[in-house]
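Changelog-adjacent note: as of this version, every example in the card shows the full chain rather than a window. The one below runs 273 residues end to end.
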Amino acid sequence: MAAVEQQAGTAEQAGHEEIVLSASEITVAFGDNVILDGLSLDIRRGEILGFVGASGSGKSVLLRTILGLVRKRSGTIRLFGIDVEKASDTERLAIDMRLGVLFQQGALFSALTVLENVQVPMREYLDLPRKLMADVALLKIELVGLSPNDSGKYPSELSGGMIKRAALARALALDPDIVFLDEPTSGLDPISAAEFDELVVKLRDTMGLTVYMVTHDLDSLFTTCDRVAVLGRKKVLVEGTIDDMLKSEEPWVKSYFRGKRARQLDLAARQQP
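Full-length structure tokens:
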């Protein structure tokens, strides 16, 4: 009996550990303007979740709320099983070090080189010798497909795709467990966007990352994401695989995922070997 109870407890614990991020009944408002109303969403370890919704629906608001940049009116956010609102300073620091963030335009510091930008989280959270810090930063830069020669360049010298890669290298600086990407392919040409999507999948597979991707890019949703959550009417309307999205009769989901552009992408994806 004890063995059965122990196995049940272990299974329950394993199931709990699969949820990296849990947002429960989240309400966010700016004055009288309610942006999110009782929204709930879980993200599982090792998945790439695409978070999509109409412009102005609150996708980035939820991201910033999870990161503690926007105050919520009510609800609970748990990261790695810890209620962030009740976390001690030590727990909060440990959580922050397990998060990586790529904001929409890259948000690189214009006065710093690529190498120096990647070192910013290391300087904030780690006490490393200068040489070791430079070596680790170079490894991250090469990991995202940039060359060592790019490390000495300033953001103004980089293309849009290179800026996104440099920002991703910075997001990976502390070897995070979960990476938050806010419209990562926005502003990129189709080839650069596809290459960035491929990079995200490769990093997930090789590093065991969990990825939360706010996006409106149908290509990313069809080719990169394991699951999709749709924001509408201030909460998650539908969540599931692309196949689930294609079957949904929710009007916005139907028009978005079964429109002409989406049908072309779905056909191309299904024709691939």
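Structural remarks: The chain has a mean pLDDT of 89.
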